[in-house]
Design goal:
heterodimer; A: mainly alpha; 82% helix; 0% strand; B: mainly alpha
């Protein structure tokens, strides 16, 4: 099997697991909708639409975190990750497959969350949607690797937000900029740059995270 | 030896900063913290960079000693980063009247880095000692050096929508003596960091050796 075939097989495995067990996606969906409702009450009356745009990003990042904490749990059970690491394929394929699966989850959630946001708060323009998509790439790339690190630690779910949030700050800056600015081009370019830099770094370093 | 040189240089820097360098016409005495704040910040960057370099060497050469060296460098970097936040905060209070200003890119960057590297310790100490921990710590340390320029750029970008009117600060027009004082202070802080790095590394190695000895004896 070639490299992309491995990646596709691994991503398919995650999607199939989720389709059968359905334990992550419904949770993420309910979480993001609840967060949006909480935000409605967190914003005092008179707060402008821009504030809601910023909060959308908080909701997205925390929803992604919720999904990421579960990302490696199927592999952790029964030492399945060791089996994957021993498989005769490039180890970075494991990361890429997992990132692709998480990306699909995230986009699926956003297909509901973004219209819900538009309904509850204010409509989103093309810049914002593009920003969300680009940020998703970065969130999945970095988040999947950090989740693998967290899975190796004793504290697991506890430590992932601590690792992830400082690295997500540039994504928030780019995403909020793309949502609120009249000229989103620069922010989208920045998000693309972030994705490229960190995807390469994750791709190159994943092997060391899962092997000894 | 290094410690003595560091102490002498720091003493010299203090004398230069407080008694030799001329008073800043605009900011008065509070400007003198510049001679410590900026070198401390630069040293913190240097420590993070050094830690990442050792991390890269660990992943590349697979020699165990690089793990401890990387950790100690990042530990020093975090201490100097916290000092940067403290001195920056004092300077902000003195010259802008507030303990914290989001206008100051450098301060915000250091806050992000401080959070990032604090998580490094959380991560490191929640994994059992061994090659796995060394690898994971090293990869995280490498993320740090990628995060520094990316965050810096991001904070610059964020100014446009968070602060439409950017705080413009004219770069201090340094006189010769001021620049000389700054250079001495920078050298002093760098040597101090190196001395601390050596001391901590020595202590940690001694610790490890002692533990091995104790295990061998029991």
């Amino acid at each position: 099997m070639n490299y992309l075939g491995d990646v596709a097989a691994l991503a398919r495995k995650d999607l199939r697991l989720e389709l059968r067990a359905r334990d992550t996606l419904p949770a993420m969906l309910l979480f993001v909708l609840s967060t949006l409702v909480v935000f409605h009450f967190a914003l005092p009356s008179g707060a402008d639409e821009l504030a809601a745009q910023g909060l959308l990003w908080v909701a997205l990042v925390f929803t992604a975190l919720l999904g990421l904490t579960r990302a490696w749990s199927p592999e952790r059970e029964d030492g399945a990750l060791d089996g994957l690491v021993l498989a005769p394929s490039d180890r970075s394929a494991i990361w890429l497959g997992k990132s692709a699966a998480v990306f699909v989850f995230l986009v699926a959630i956003e297909l509901v969350a973004l219209p819900a946001f538009a309904l509850f708060f204010s409509p989103l323009d093309a810049g914002a949607v593009l920003g969300v998509l680009l940020a998703d790439v970065g969130i999945c790339a970095v988040g999947t690797l950090l989740a693998a690190m967290a899975a190796a630690s004793r504290t697991r779910e506890l430590i992932l937000p601590l690792l992830f949030l400082p690295l997500a700050i540039p994504l928030i800056v780019g995403g909020v900029g793309a949502s609120v600015s009249t000229d989103p081009g620069r922010y989208l370019a920045f998000l693309g740059l972030y994705d490229a830099v960190f995807a390469i770094l994750c791709w190159a370093s994943f092997e060391y995270v899962v092997s000894e | 030896m290094v410690a003595a040189v560091a102490a002498a240089l720091v003493g010299l820097a203090i004398v230069l900063a407080f008694f030799v360098a001329p008073e800043d016409a605009d900011q008065g005495i509070s400007q003198r913290i510049f001679y410590f704040h900026v070198p401390i910040a630069l040293t913190a960057y240097a420590c993070f960079g050094w830690g990442a370099w050792k991390a890269l060497l660990l992943l590349w050469k697979r020699e165990e000693r690089y793990d401890l060296e990387s950790y100690v460098a990042i530990h020093q970097g975090t201490i100097f980063g916290a000092l940067t936040l403290a001195t920056g905060s004092i300077w902000a209070k003195a010259s802008w009247g507030k303990w914290w200003v989001w206008d100051s890119n450098q301060l915000v960057l250091f806050l992000v880095l401080f959070l990032f590297y604090s998580a490094y310790f959380m991560l490191r100490f929640s994994i059992d000692e061994g090659p796995r921990r060394a690898n994971v710590s090293a990869v995280y340390a490498l993320f740090g050096v990628a995060l520094i320029p990316v965050s810096f750029f991001a904070i610059r970008l964020a100014e446009d929508f968070i602060h439409p009117t950017t705080f413009t600060r004219e770069g201090p027009q340094m006189t010769g003596t001021m620049f000389f004082t700054f250079c001495v202070a920078w050298l002093a802080i760098t040597v101090l960091a190196y001395a601390l790095y050596r001391v901590e590394l020595l202590g940690k190695r001694l610790d490890a050796n002692l533990r091995e000895l104790r295990e061998a004896l029991t």
